[in-house]
Amino acid sequence: MFFDPGFMGTRAPMYLDIVGIFFGILPFLMFFSIRYAIKGDIKKHLVSQAIIFVLTLVFVVIFETGMRMAGGFSAYIEESPVNYTFFITFLIIHVLVAIATFNLWSYQLITSVKAYRKGELKVGTGQRHKKIARILIAGIFVTIAQGVGIYYFLFIM
Ligand code: HEM
């Protein structure tokens, strides 16, 4: 089932289609969580951010486990006409952006919870928090867009 053909009608296996759906809805989850902050409901903003972070980790683990078990991307690239050098370059940039985004996300979560507990992060005092959030959201969007590109190169092209 895990490695059977997925439901999107491409060459991708089931687990990648499932992971893909999650990353497709991730920006919407972020949007709803940020809406809580805008409305001043910081408790819900915090809890939803923690849930989104953990859910993302779970889907990254599903993705990594499936990829390792399938023999890595090289097992999939054989069926694609994409240029190998171009693909590797694209993949390396994607991995760098994804790792940087993940690190910034972890940093934002830990420092925000700490500051909130100390009473240093409240509605109206989160200028730095908002600045980092903007970079983080851009990082998440770029990572997802690159992921869509990789899916296209490997399973649609
Ligand atoms: C880790 C991912 C997070 C992201 C991407 C994020 C994003 C944001 C954004 C975009 C805003 C601005 C909303 C507006 O325009 O009014 C905001 C505000 C805020 N967030 Fe977060 N947030 C995160 C985590 C947290 C956590 C864990 C806390 C802990 C309580 C927190 C507490 C706050 C507070 C207090 C505000 C209001 C700041 C102010 O009005 O000056 N955030 N957040």
Itemize the secondary structure elements and their pairings:
Layout: H1 14-39, H2 42-70, H3 73-77, H4 84-117, H5 127-156
Helix pairs in contact: 1-2, 1-5, 2-4, 4-5
The structure holds protoporphyrin IX containing FE.
The site of protoporphyrin IX containing FE has 23 residues, from helix 1, helix 2, helix 4 and helix 5.
Helical content class:
over 70%
In percent terms, what proportion of residues is strand? under 5%
Largest sheet: none
Count of separate DSSP helical elements: 5
Q: Could you state the oligomeric state of the chains shown? A: single chain
The span between the termini is: 24 Å
Count of folded domains: 1
Describe this structure in words.
By secondary structure, this protein is mainly alpha-helical. Helices cover 79% and strands 0% of the residues. The protein has helices spanning 14-39, 42-70, 73-77, 84-117, 127-156. The two termini are 24 Å apart. 8% of the residues are buried. The model has no long low-confidence stretch (mean pLDDT 97). Bound molecules: protoporphyrin IX containing FE. Protoporphyrin IX containing FE binds next to helix 1, helix 2, helix 4 and helix 5.
